[in-house]
Amino acid sequence: MTGDPTSLTPPPPAPPQPEREPGVGPGPGGPAPVSQGNVDRADLPTPPQTVTPTPPVAGEESPLDIGWTGVVPGARSAYEQAPSAPTCPACGQGHFLDGYCDHCGAKEPDPRDHIEESPATWVGGVSDIGRRHTRNEDAVALAAEPALGTRAVLVVCDGVSNTTDSHIASLAGARAARTVLDQPLATGVGTPEAIRAAAVRRLNEAVQAANAAVIATVTDRADPTPPSCTFTGAVVTGGTAVVGNVGDSRIYWLPDSGDGARQLSRDDSYAADRIASGVERKEAETGPMAHSITRWLGIDAPDDLTPHTTEVALDRAGWLMLCSDGLWNYCSEASDLQALLARLTGEGRAGTPTELARALVDFANNAGGADNITVALARVEQAAPTEGDGAHG
Q1: Which of 4, 18, 95, 192 could link 270 by a cystine bridge, Cβ 3.0 to 4.6 Å?
Q2: Lowest-pLDDT range, 82-86, 245-249, 319-323, 340-344?
Q3: Full domain range(s) for residue 175
Q4: Inside any domain, residue 11
Q5: Is 13 within the bounds of a domain?
Q6: Do 372 and 129 touch, CB atoms closer than 8 A?
Q7: DSSP letter string over 17-32?
């Protein structure tokens, strides 16, 4: 994830802070988050409000923290698959008992290292730790109706590295946003304009819910680097997708062929500001502070968290894709991603959205895997009728 506040004026002297990774850009009140799977948002003033962390509901405690040693028993989200007893990847024979293989003794891997979600045949996603990080600070949350092209919700959050419990923050934020976005839209008379307005309102509500969920993960108000993450979300309703973002995770519309491939999201980053000023994209995205973000979710987030929103007509066969910078670090231009998807499809690696997402994760890992990698995809086969049957109105 990225982080770098908009103001580039050096901040006043601040008390010494814990050592962080290089590449953090300055921002209002001090350096802000940096994204590349590593985001840093330290030395920002502590907001005056008091935040009381919300204790987990009994049976819903998260095992996805550092030092995870096994599955925490209890109720699971309706979106998640039933628990399974995987075979130990080290020996291929044993199963895990109390966090260790009962055959060879190998430690059970953290389930957060690689997550796949497939809520419907036309929607799927993969989140992977990558090759260089010690934990996966990305998160994906999906929901979809069974019929292809009808309705779906996709959310990707990228935890700001070098902040406390960013992996917990991103997961909490993604799931909170999904819950909000998956509610029926109040579309009034059901016109395209009404549907779009309702989806934009819902994206704003989802950002606020995700921000509250991230803040609820704060355990120490004196922490100079509290949990934070970026946000991307999409609501697919019939033949239209309405999308929004805060931070530098991205959303693309990638038709199978022809013109029209484009980035739908707008980065909140120092690199994006440089591109807007005329700097060539490749230079801006690889230069110093390229992954410093200017907006993020969390207790020290900027006041304005209104997501950048837009809509796109899903009027031909193609892919709606949300991804963290762990992927677009290696393939940024929409036309290049379109060509990459065409190549992977030609190689037979796009049987399902989840399989294609897995192939994209493999591509990023083979290119270096310097960051956590998350990809969420919705398949469009042809133009679908605009939602107006009242099912979600």
Answers
A1: 4
A2: 82-86
A3: 111-380
A4: no
A5: no
A6: yes
A7: -----S-PPP-TTS--
C-alpha closest to that of 367 among 92, 136, 132: 132
pTM of the predicted model as reported, rounded to 2 decimal places: 0.75
Query: Token pair for residue 86?
Result: 């995987």
Mean pLDDT across the stretch 147-154?
Answer: 95
Q: Average pLDDT over the chain, rounded to whole?
A: 81
**Distance (Å, whole) CA 82 – CA 120:** 15
Are the beta carbons of 101 and 88 closer than 8 angstroms? Answer: yes
Which residues, at least 6 apart from 242, have a Cβ–Cβ distance to it below 8 Å? 195, 196, 199, 200, 203, 234, 235, 309, 310, 311
Please say whether the beta carbons of 342 and 256 come within 8 A. yes
Residues in the chain: 393
Domains: count for the chain: 1
**Residues whose CB falls within 8 Å of the CB of residue 22, separated by 6 or more in sequence, listed in order:** none
Residues 203, 244 contacting (CB under 8 angstroms): yes
Task: Write the CB contacts of 306 (distance below 8 Å, at least 6 apart in sequence).
Answer: 204, 207
Angle between helices 353-366 and 334-346 (to 10 degrees): 110
Q: Is residue 6 part of a domain?
A: no
CATH number of domain containing 214:
3.60.40.10
Which residue type, as a one-letter code, is found at position 164?
A: T
